[in-house]
Amino acid sequence: MADPMLSLEGVTAGYGQIQVLWGMDLVVHPGEVVALVGSNGAGKSTLLRTISGLLRPNAGTISFEGAEIGGAKPDAVLKAGIAHVPEGRRLFRGLTVRDNLMLGAYLRADREAIARDLETVFDLFPILRERQRQDATTLSGGEQQMCAVGRGIMSRPRLLMIDELSLGLSPRMVEHLGEALAALNKAGQTILLVEQDVMTAFDLSHRAYIIENGRVARGGASAELARDPTVSEAYLSI
């Protein structure tokens, strides 16, 4: 297997005196979809925030394509090739769908490629093309998630991190978003996905890590984890 695109070793992080991550180790290889699953408060979102530079790690290393990025500022992490789609979408009120999407490309200067990528987003999510002049915050929850993911795509990342893809969405919308992620991955996009719905996470990913109390409790192929009776009993309620 190729060298990891992203590698974390012994990463600890938190908020002030409250430590949330305790020696996190994980890897993401090029072309993979890797899921992080676990209960609320397990540290999944904190982990993405630490990778993207919103939080500074207290210890450990974060390597992306062979370069250390632990402690780098968010704009430097984005320039390195990592886009973070945050929980809650965080779209800008008063700006259109198109403007919100274009903000994802604000560090880019390749205007023709930006135009092509915008068309790619519209092809992936046709409803955004129809509503590109509408205030993005007036879209439905699922449509806002499409816009948030599209904004991440517009930075042309080599690693796309998505926090809570399905939160608050209907099963049909989750299915539609899952199909879009599968198409992105088939085209070569590497994805790190935080997902509280464990079955959805396993369905969408090649590998998964189970996070408990800020630590990696289990890791492996998603299909194997889904068949593991101890995982089913603890996380799938079946």
TrEMBL record:
The keyword Transport applies. One of its GO terms (biological process) is L-amino acid transport. Residues 6-238 form the ABC transporter domain. It comes from the Bacteria. Gene3D superfamilies: P-loop containing nucleotide triphosphate hydrolases (3.40.50.300). InterPro entries: AAA+_ATPase, ABC_transporter-like_ATP-bd, BCAA_Transport_ATP-bd_LivF, P-loop_NTPase. GO terms for molecular function: ATP binding; ATP hydrolysis activity; branched-chain amino acid transmembrane transporter activity. Keywords: Amino-acid transport, ATP-binding, Nucleotide-binding, Transport. It holds the Pfam family ABC_tran. Belongs to the ABC transporter superfamily. This is ABC transporter ATP-binding protein. The lineage of its organism: Bacteria, Pseudomonadati, Pseudomonadota, Alphaproteobacteria, Hyphomicrobiales.
